[in-house]
Design brief:
- Helices cover 66% and strands 0% of the residues.
- It has a domain of 92 residues.
- With 132 residues, it is mostly helical.
- The termini are far apart.
């Protein structure tokens, strides 16, 4: 039993590493974030300074290891959009995310239930017909 749990934990770590590599790669495929953060008329010198400040001028593998090290410590950086720690945003939205996750299994049964309630001998409020 202990071997099984350890094997599953090792697999989970590998999955998390794989997902982090994929997400990190996709984020870098979207383009240069400094171009999105700075105004269109920004000088090239400003772009270089911001790239250096954010560590985006380092090789990708260095950026990934830095990202991974910070993520393991729970430091997800600062949101570019909201200028607050990303972990704060995660904590704020986590309850709604968990609520939606918990409600997910109920969704397939809710549509037939709603149709049955709607069409149980009364006019359908959506179509006005006698049958839904």
């Amino acid at each position: 039993m202990v071997a099984y749990v350890l094997r599953r934990l090792a697999q989970s770590v590998l999955v998390l590493l794989g997902v982090s590599v994929i997400v990190f790669g996709l984020l870098h495929l979207t383009g240069d974030p400094t171009r999105l953060l700075l105004p269109l008329e920004a000088r090239e010198e400003d772009v270089r300074q911001l790239r250096a400040l954010l560590g985006l001028d380092d090789p990708l593998w260095v950026q990934y290891l830095r990202f991974l090290g910070r993520a393991v410590r729970g430091d997800f950086g600062v949101s570019f959009k909201h200028q607050v720690p990303a972990l704060t945003l995660i904590r704020q939205t986590l309850p709604a995310t968990l609520e939606l996750t918990a409600a997910g299994p109920a969704t397939p049964s809710s549509t037939p239930s709603a149709r049955w309630a709607c069409c149980s001998g009364r006019r359908c409020p959506y179509t006005g017909s006698d049958s839904c």
